Amino acid sequence: MPGYRGHLMGGGLFAGVAWAAVALWLPEQEPGPLFGIVLTAITVLAALFPDVDTDSKGQSLFYAILAAVDLGLLIRGQFKWAAVIGFAAMLPALGHHRGWTHSWWAMFVIPLPILVLPVIFWEVHPLALAPFYAAAVLGYLSHLVLDAVL
């Protein structure tokens, strides 16, 4: 079972898969640097997420990044998003290690806010968000594969 470094590397590898998938299936997208950075960050954070329910370096790194993003949202007045991130940050406390966070269904459900919330709050078309949802699922999958859960 790999530690946080293994999951970071797995997330990075699967981020490459996400980039390749966007290039193959959405060639008209022509992603710029910001797109790639966001896609990679989502993949890597999703790769760390299943272990945030235990005291670890991965948990510390995940929550440090989440706190910085949440603070940035608060400073920019994006209170809805800041509240969503704060709520999501509490969810792992509802289970035990290798509980629901290490299940195949969580791999699909946990990233759903990436698709659903922008549609509700800003009427963004879900297809525009599909690469980011897929990146989160791939990052989560990398964690489950490395932990040999799937």
Could you describe the 3D structure shown?
- The chain is mainly α and 150 residues long.
- Helix content is 71%, strand content 0%.
- The chain has helices at 4-25, 33-48, 57-75, 79-90, 104-109, 112-122, 126-146.
- The longest helix has 22 residues, at 4-25.
- The mean pLDDT is 86.
Mean pLDDT: 86
Number of strands: 0
Total helices: the number is 7
Low-confidence runs: none
Share of helix among residues? over 70%
- Summing up helix and strand content along with how strands pair, one would put the structural category as mainly alpha
Major beta-sheet overview = none
Percent of residues in β-strands: under 5%
Secondary-structure element sequence?
HHHHHHH
Q: What is the CA-CA span between the terminal residues?
A: 13 Å
Broad shape: globular
What does the oligomeric state look like here?
single chain
**Compute the gyration radius: what is it?**
15 Å
Summarize the structure.
This protein is mostly helical. Helix content is 71%, strand content 0%.
Primary descriptors:
single chain, 150 residues, mainly alpha, 71% helix, globular
Write the layout of secondary structure elements.
Elements: H1 4-25, H2 33-48, H3 57-75, H4 79-90, H5 104-109, H6 112-122, H7 126-146
